[in-house]
Amino acid sequence: MKNTGIVKKIDELGRLVIPKEIRSALGIDKENVEFFMDGDKLIVTKWNAHCVFCGGTDDMVEYKEKLICAGCRKDIAGN
């Protein structure tokens, strides 16, 4: 893990500004991000669409606000 030396304060509404240099380096400017917790660490990553069942990313379709890949759609249909 790389220490940037940048310290930011969370405001009263719970917002945290990710510095432009970091957003640019990670390619997350105006992108959706995903949050994970690992012990006492907060991990922020670029969000990648993935299947709710298998985690696959091929041929995604949204169904009832969930993403499902082609393979799982085929399995569900029983084909």
Question: TL;DR of this structure?
Answer:
With 79 residues, this protein is of the alpha+beta class. It has two helices and four strands.
Write the layout of secondary structure elements.
Layout: H1 20-26, E1 33-38, E2 41-46, E3 61-63, E4 66-68, H2 70-77
Antiparallel strand pairs: 1-2, 3-4
Task: Describe the protein in words.
- This protein has helices at residues 20-26, 70-77; strands spanning 33-38, 41-46, 61-63, 66-68.
- The chain is α+β, with helices and mostly antiparallel strands and 79 residues long.
- The strands form two sheets. Strands 1-2 form a two-stranded antiparallel ribbon. A two-stranded antiparallel sheet has the order 3-4.
- The longest helix is centred in the last third of the chain and has 8 residues, at 70-77.
- The protein is elongated and about 55 Å long.
- The relative contact order is 0.11.
- The model has no long low-confidence stretch (mean pLDDT 88).
Features:
79 residues; alpha+beta; Pemi-like Protein 1, Chain: D; 2 domains; two-stranded antiparallel ribbon; two-stranded antiparallel sheet; 2 helices; 4 strands; 23% strand; elongated
The string of secondary-structure elements, in order, is HEEEEH
| Strand order, sheet with most strands | 1-2
Quick one: biggest sheet?
A: 2 strands, antiparallel
Low-pLDDT runs: none
| Helix segment tally | 2
The CATH architecture category of the largest domain equals Ribbon
Global mean pLDDT = 88
The Rg value, from CA coordinates, equals 17 Å
Structural class call reads alpha+beta
Question: How is the CATH topology of the largest domain named?
Answer: Pemi-like Protein 1, Chain: D
Shape: elongated
How many β-strand stretches?
A: 4
Beta content: 15-25%
Question: What is the helix content?
Answer: 10-25%
Q: How far do the termini sit from each other?
A: 45 Å
Q: Work out the count of structural domains.
A: 2
- Specify the CATH class of the largest domain: Mainly Beta
